Amino acid sequence: MGIPVTPIQHQPKPVHASKHSGSLFNYTLKRAGQSLITVLIVITVVFLLMRLLPVEGYFGDGYDKLDASQREAVLKSMGLLEPWYMQLKNFYVDLFRGDLGTSIIFRPQIPITEIIGPKIPYSAYFGFAALLMSLSLGLCLGVFQAREKGKWFDRLGTGYVVFINAVPAAVYFLFIQLYATQAFKLPILFNKDKPSSWILPAICMSLGGIAGYAMWIRRFMVDELNKDYIKLARAKGLSNTDVMFKHVLRNAFVPMAQYLPTSLLMTIAGSLYIESLYSIPGMGGLLIDAISRQDNPLVQALVLIYSTIGIFGLFMGDVLMAVIDPRIKLDKKGGAR
Amino acid sequence: MTTKKNIEILENQALFELANYDASESERTGYSDYSYWGSTLKVFLKNKTAVLALILLGVLLSFTFVQPYLPGQRDPNEINLSQETFRQLRNVKPTSEFWFGTNSIGQDLWARIWRGTRTSLMIALLVATWNIVIGVIVGAVWGYVRSLDRVITEVYNVLNNIPTTIIMTLFAYMLRPSISTMVIAMCATGWLPVSRFVRTQVVIIRDREYNLASRCLGTPSTRIITRNVLPYLVSVIMLRFALAVPGAIGSEVFLTYIGLGLPLSTPSLGNLVNEGRQIMMIASMRYQLIFPSVVLSLITISFYVMGNAFSDAADPRNHV
User: Fold this and answer.
1) Rounded distance, CA B164 to CA A59, Å?
2) For the purposes of burial, counting CB atoms within 10 Å of the CB of A65, is it exposed (0-12), middle (13-18) or buried (19 or more)?
3) Which residues pair with B79 in a beta bridge?
4) Interface of B with A in 227-246 (CB under 8 A)
5) Domains of chain A, with CATH numbers?
6) How far apart are CA B172 and CA B262, in angstroms?
7) Can you give the pLDDT of all 320 residues of chain B as single tens digits?
8) What does the pLDDT look like over A182-221, one tens digit per residue?
9) B53-318 homologous superfamily
10) How many CB atoms lie within 10 A of CB A206?
11) From CA A314, how far away is CA A167, in angstroms rounded?
12) Measured between CB atoms, does A307 come within 8 Å of chain B?
């Protein structure tokens, strides 16, 4: 899980070449059905992958102390000795009852909803703050870069974008934690009662997003400002600001709309690096912890949540885009964007 | 019937015969002294930053191979002992003897960094090559062959929705940590974004007039893909390749960070940074974090800058 801000790529996503010619409603319904099937397949694949792991992981440190029959008893109590299709069936039956299961290793016998519940708000707060910052600062940076194209401000911004994109996040996060805490006298670790300890993690999380949005909007504007409709708007006598806000930014918002729902929903996934560096009790490292300790129910639940969010986000994005841009048709021509 | 009329009929018939595909005919063009790669190189060399990055990378890469043979170098895994006390020379700050100091068990950081750079670059290049090759092949087929579009799109949706973290972590757990495990884990899904990108590009240009014309003349699909479509994408593919290298180095750092990295006996930039991270709170030992981080950043930034410059240069619209 990097930073929960999906960088915008200026390319259409693979669109399902939908053959029906119908309304937004039909399209929505059909996409919802497809999304549901995808979620089910993803869960099943991950479920089967988890069963490929060696069984030692289920015992923690106690593996060597148990003899064969004890091991078998433990496995049986976890329901792991049944054939895989029975396990899969049980999993789905529980799921339809709304039961995500209980953790078996991470925090034994605790319902998964109870484990995840308190963690989500932390990740969501930080994620949301970071998303807001990346959007506002990123767009501003990009817009000014495009205006100052070729001048020192643009070069500075490009330098920042290159640095953030090229250097692995872990490296600059470390240095920020190391030196920014000293320079600004901020606490090194997160403490929920100390508001000053919230600042750095949120800023760190937004760095990647700022670079992504800035790079994208700069390129968009540089391309767009040469187009005829902008020249017409200028010729009509619109001021620069009006051209910017009424024409360019409004057009820029269309491709962004596709990714915004995903970015927004994915904030609850948290950021692994940030949360472990500042020891924030969020969702960030939970998935990796769960995999490394082979807590199958927890992994399944998390994958279920993440993939549902991911797929649902894309779906929302497509619908949102169709709603705000009247030019986009979701019927036959939809694939030819 | 006269012979003249016969000839006329024959000639007319020739007009209605299929123009069969002829490889040598399709190569024939008017003469021009424009050379694509020559112009690309020329434009690339004009970009000073990119040339600097290229030189830097060349020097770094060749140095990692030359360094072990230089006089007075230590083995990266040798634990250095003091001559007098026979104690381990732990956490020695950079001196004339240990240029980058030593780590917490007395290994020479200078030697480790160069060995690590070599390992990391090797992993990154392998992964990047694999991801680009597979991504381009799958993407080209996905985009060009209409009947497969539906199927591959669905497969993509499934694969793409399994979190990468899960796949990498699973692979790293199922197999012992080693260079090949790491490469496999990173290759497993790394080609997905490339293939989607190539697919989109192919869909955009597959029905351009020149491709339609080619198809009407009976050019085989493979030839259209390799001769008409892919050359158009050279610049973006090269850009993807150049960006895949920093990406792979980042993944290596990530895998090491979550504890699935290479064993310490195989130094890599990932585990050197991670080692440095563990002691970064002690101000006097920070050199152990700073040196590997600087080398790593130089490499990733160079690749990034070079990739961007090359993709600009490879775009014929930028040729004079």
Assistant:
1) 26
2) exposed
3) B107
4) 243, 246
5) 118-293 (1.10.3720.10)
6) 10
7) 566 767 676 667 767 777 677 767 666 666 666 777 788 888 888 888 889 988 998 898 888 888 778 777 777 777 777 777 777 767 677 777 777 777 777 777 888 888 888 888 888 989 999 999 999 989 888 888 888 888 888 888 778 777 777 777 777 667 777 788 888 888 888 888 888 888 888 888 877 888 888 888 888 888 888 888 888 888 788 888 888 888 888 888 888 887 777 877 788 888 888 888 877 777 777 777 888 888 888 888 888 888 888 888 877 777 76
8) 787 777 777 777 777 788 888 888 888 898 888 888 888 8
9) MetI-like (1.10.3720.10)
10) 25
11) 28
12) yes
Rounded to whole angstroms, the Cα distance separating A157 from A163 reads 10
Which residue(s) pair with B88 in the sheet?
B81
Q: Cα dihedral sign for B14, B20, B22, B28?
A: positive
Give dist(CA A93, CA A74) in Å, integer: 23
Let me know how long chain A is: 337
Q: What local confidence, expressed as pLDDT, does residue B134 receive?
A: 92
Q: Chain B contact for A53, CB < 8 A?
A: yes
Place of tokens 């817009």: A143
Residue pair A113/A72 in contact (Cβ under 8 Å)? The answer is: no
Neighbours of B150 (CB within 10 A): 11
ipTM over 0.85: no
| B243 chain-A contacts, CB cut-off 8 A | 165
Selected residue of A9, A16, A174 to mutate for chain B interface (largest B Cβ count, 10 A): A174
Phi/psi at B79 (nearest 5 deg)?
Answer: -90, 115
The model's pLDDT over A239-297, given as tens digits with 9 standing for 90+, comes to 878 887 778 877 777 777 777 888 888 888 878 888 888 888 888 778 777 777 777 77
Q: Please report, for residues A44, B4, B226, B237, the alpha-carbon distance to residue B234 in angstroms, rounded to integers and kept in the order given.
A: 38, 53, 11, 5
Domain boundaries, chain B: 53-318
Q: Give the A window 236-295 contacts with B, CB below 8 Å.
A: 272-273, 285, 287-288, 291-292
Question: Does the beta-carbon distance from B170 to A1 stay under 8 Å?
Answer: no
DSSP A161: H
The pLDDT tens digits for A156-174 are: 888 898 888 888 888 888 8
Cross-chain residue pair B162–A45, CB shorter than 8 Å = yes
- E strand intervals along chain A: none
Tokens of B39: 């112009």
Contact list in B for residue A218 (CB cut-off 8 A) is none
- Which DSSP string corresponds to B103-157? -TTSBBHHHHHHHHHHHHHHHHHHHHHHHHHHHHHHHHHHHH-HHHHHHHHHHHH
- Chain B residues whose CB is inside 8 A of the A39 CB are 161
Interchain CB distance below 8 Å, A291 and B250: no
Q: Are A250 and A233 in contact (CB under 8 A)?
A: no
Beta bridge pairs of residue A111: A102
* A88 SS3 class: helix
Per-residue pLDDT of A125-159, as tens digits, reads: 888 888 899 889 988 888 888 888 778 888 888 88
